[in-house]
Amino acid sequence: MNDRSLSANIVGDVPADNCAARLVRLFGSQAEVARRLQLDRAVVNHWIKVGYVPARWGTEIELATDGRITASEVVAEASSRRPIKLKSRPDGEGPFGSILQGSDTMSLQYAPSKRITSFHPPQRTLMGPGPTEIHPRVLTTMSQPAIGYLDPIFIDMMEELKSLLRYVFQTKNALTFPVSGPGSVGMEYCFVNMVAPGDKVIVCRNGVFGGRMIENVERAGGVPIVVDDEWGAPVDPQKLEDALKANRDARVVAFVHAETSTGARSDAKTLIEIAHRYDALTIVDAVTALAGIPVLVDEWGVDAIYSASQKCLSCTPGLSPVSFSERVVDYVKARKDKIHSWFMDMNLLHSYWNGGGGGTSTAPVRTYHHTAPTNSLFALHEALVLIREEGLENCWARATRHHTALKAGLESMGLRFLVRPEYQLPQMNAVRCPEGVDEAKVRRTLLNEYNIEIGAGLGPLAGKIWRIGLMGYSCRTENVMLCLSALDQTLSDQGMKLHVGEAQGAAHAAYASLHASIAQQKKERAKVARVA
Ligand SMILES: Cc1ncc(COP(=O)(O)O)c(C=O)c1O
């Protein structure tokens, strides 16, 4: 019997279009499948006989077939054909002890059609625009036992968490806490509380996230005045000033400090100074900025700021640290109209995060507002402890050091940054895709062959740039070197004329020169200290 007839004559309960048979159809013969996957032909023959491909071959098959048979199809089929048997569990025992009911036939009609087992994500190197890799200490802390959100131990932890957030925001603002929800919720929290129907808000837009702010103003009933800048350029302070001159009744100015969609950094200090000159409050998006570059809330006089847990804080997604000045808190308290969102009403949430201060505090007792995501908050606490241990300024310096090395490597390959050097964010590197290179294919190859995730361009930059993140725990030498070597190989496979290894050499040289200048500075400081 030849290979083709074998694949066509599969019997029993094995579907004729199982992954093993599809492989043979795709490649023409069992021998060819074996050759492509570098396997013994007997192995492929066995797959055909049993009617499935073992789950561990999923990724290889996806690669070999260029995605025509996906890893998840292989895994799903394998687990339904050969379910994992939990031998240690005797009959009649469930994961939580003896099963008393006996059967669950009634509910079975709604059960998933395939057998679903525990989910185990692969270990990826995350170098996109977020989420980032998570430090093992944060993951361990997150898996500690659950406790109640009003447990006194938890409340002590909340107080520590707030003080750690004040440290990363560089503020003494009393109202500094993590909103339950991703960065988008933090954004909405600011707009919903600070924009009343009819309020004029100047929104500076130089990328995707400025656009989201406009949506928020409109949905809060405000009137957005848009100051547009080119994607990849910073917000132009002069344009902001012109808009404020033309709209003296504008109540709020909103802008993104670190535009994740382009990798551009705006001059937050100057923009806030201008807004205050015209008596407008400021809303600053620090989702990507916080802990990657200096964010000095008190020094700059920021009125309202929000960030997200999954960027340079390197925690699990789903929390949005925010901080508000007294001026904003008073402004929101004095609002006569009802804030349009119950969940986000600052006056209501205040008593959960800032109530019952203990000791001499006159704050009202801390009460239930919503069920806080306790384990995620443990994780954020640990992520912030890590930043405190490293030192915030060292965190910023680490981002800059690895950005310098990554940039040296990328530029040695002839790649060009989207943003001019003086406005480049160290933690978000937007690099132009060279002509003739398939942007999406490069990302796919990095993911499938090297387990590295980098980001694509958004909106008008889709297909034109890659976004390489150096945020939080992902910002490490080994990631920079792995990314450069993977890109080097992938781009040269796509026909770019590169000297393989040169990019890593350039990055090494950049690291070496940075280390030498740091050593020199230390020496000079020691000399000054001796003389003093
Ligand atoms: C600058 C900026 N603002 C807001 C957001 C929205 O945050 P999230 O995706 O956590 O909702 C993002 C997300 O990437 C961002 O980069």
Give the topology.
Layout: H1 3-8, H2 19-27, H3 30-37, H4 41-50, H5 58-64, H6 71-81, E1 93-94, E2 97-98, H7 105-108, E3 125-126, H8 136-142, H9 152-169, E4 175-180, H10 183-194, E5 200-205, H11 208-219, E6 223-228, H12 237-246, E7 252-256, E8 258-259, E9 264-265, H13 268-277, E10 281-285, H14 297-300, E11 304-306, E12 319-324, H15 326-333, H16 346-354, H17 374-390, H18 392-412, E13 428-432, H19 439-450, E14 452-453, E15 455-456, E16 465-469, H20 477-493, H21 502-531
Parallel strand pairs: 3-14, 5-6, 5-7, 7-10, 10-11
Antiparallel strand pairs: 1-2, 4-12, 8-9, 11-12, 13-16, 15-16
Helix pairs in contact: 3-4, 5-6, 8-17, 9-17, 10-11, 12-13, 17-18, 18-20, 18-21, 19-20
Residues 129-130, 182-184, 187, 209, 256, 260, 285, 287-288, 308, 317 line the site of pyridoxal-5'-phosphate.
Number of domains: 3
CATH class of the largest domain: Alpha Beta
Quaternary structure classification: single chain
- Write the CATH homologous superfamily of the largest domain: Type I PLP-dependent aspartate aminotransferase-like (Major domain)
Identify the overall geometry: globular
In which range does the helix fraction lie?
A: 40-55%
Instruction: List each distinct ligand once.
Output: pyridoxal-5'-phosphate
Spatial gap, N to C terminus: 91 Å
Kindly identify the CATH topology of the largest domain.
Aspartate Aminotransferase, domain 2
Strand fraction equals 5-15%
Mean pLDDT: 92
Strand order of the largest sheet: 4-12-11-10-7-5-6
Which blocks of ≥5 consecutive residues have pLDDT under 50? 1-12, 357-361
Number of helices: 21
Rounded to an integer in angstroms, the radius of gyration calculated over CA atoms is: 28 Å
CATH architecture of the largest domain: 3-Layer(aba) Sandwich
Number of DSSP strands?
16
Class by SSE composition: alpha/beta
Q: What about the largest sheet?
A: 7 strands, mixed
